[in-house]
Design goal:
By secondary structure, the chain is α/β, with parallel strands linked by helices. It has one domain: Purple Acid Phosphatase, chain A, domain 2 (4-Layer Sandwich). It has seven helices and twelve strands. The protein is globular and about 50 Å long. It binds fe (ii) ion (2 copies). The site of one fe (ii) ion (FE2) has 7 residues, from loops.
Length: 282
């Protein structure tokens, strides 16, 4: 029997009771939420997590850069002055604890393994903002002992070593490097003049290590780089490379003007993964 997962891209406050009804009535084995639950304020993000927690389907939720951080921290990271956010490191830790509590009994995914039968979902680095630096380094150091990208890659490799199934799927907030530098690439930068690969190098390393260890990496699913590109156009949302399917689920807003609700249906059948965009009208 194939394993079927629903992948929910950046929610940004677009989740309502129809989503609970749709997913609970569906045939999926689980729901992967890639983070960015709301906007700059933590309260609405916690409220979305609490709604998701009520699903009867199993959920793995990876926190995005918007989840648990203070707006000043986000600004500091965005303008490459992370020191601005230092006064809010304690706030971020408290918010993360509150997010974990709101998400319970569902699973918060952050450097963690989530077995679904003979497929393991490997949850990568939480709170990623993409690019060549580790976002929220003081927070990641305090909570997970991860102070730079090399340490994060090591952490992912250790997870691969601890994983007992051969078939794996990675889920993270942002996708890996290695899939292209132009804005229309799946995790290409659309907010710098010269573009650039805005993937996470630690995730690319973790995926490569999984292959080296004989794992069958069926899919890597993430979001963060919204599909609609700044300045117009849309990025590629799925790419197959070396037998692995890469999926960017960040369709924003995920509830459109016609009231249709978006997710990606990921079917894992033997050695292959297929992904389909689904728009449902409640
Ligand atoms: Fe987002
Ligand atoms: Fe994000």
């Amino acid at each position: 029997m194939p394993t079927v997962l629903a992948v929910v891209g950046d929610i940004h406050a677009r989740w309502d009771d129809h989503d609970n009804a749709l997913f609970d009535a569906s045939d999926v084995d689980g729901v992967l939420v890639v983070g960015d639950l709301a906007g700059l304020r933590f309260g609405p993000a916690r409220d979305v997590a609490a709604r998701i927690a009520r699903l009867s389907k199993r959920v793995v939720l990876v926190p995005g850069n918007h989840d648990a951080s203070h707006a000043v921290q986000l600004l500091g990271e965005a303008i490459a002055r992370p020191g601005l956010g230092r006064p809010f490191v304690g706030t971020q830790a408290r918010n993360l604890a509150a997010l974990r509590e709101a998400t319970a009994p569902q699973e918060l995914g952050a450097y963690s393994l989530h077995p679904f039968g003979d497929v393991t979902v490997i949850a990568g680095r939480p709170h990623s903002m993409g690019g060549p630096s580790l976002a929220f380094a003081p927070h990641l150091t305090a909570i997970w002992g991860v102070s730079d990208l090399a340490a994060s890659a090591e952490r992912l490799c250790a997870l691969v070593d601890a994983c007992v199934t051969e078939r794996v799927v990675f889920v993270a907030h942002n996708g890996p490097t290695g899939l292209g530098p132009t804005p229309s690439d799946i995790w290409g930068c659309d907010f710098k003049k010269d573009g650039g690969d805005w993937g996470d190098p630690d995730l690319e390393r973790g995926v490569a290590y999984a292959r080296e260890r004989g794992k069958r990496v069926l899919a890597v699913v993430a979001g963060h780089m919204h599909r609609r590109i700044r300045g117009g156009g849309r990025r590629a949302w799925k790419v197959e490379r070396d037998g692995t399917l890469y999926v960017n689920a960040a369709e924003v807003p995920r509830i459109d003007r016609d009231g249709r609700h978006h997710h990606v249906r990921l079917v894992l059948d033997g050695d292959t993964a297929t992904a389909t965009d689904v728009w449902e009208t409640p």
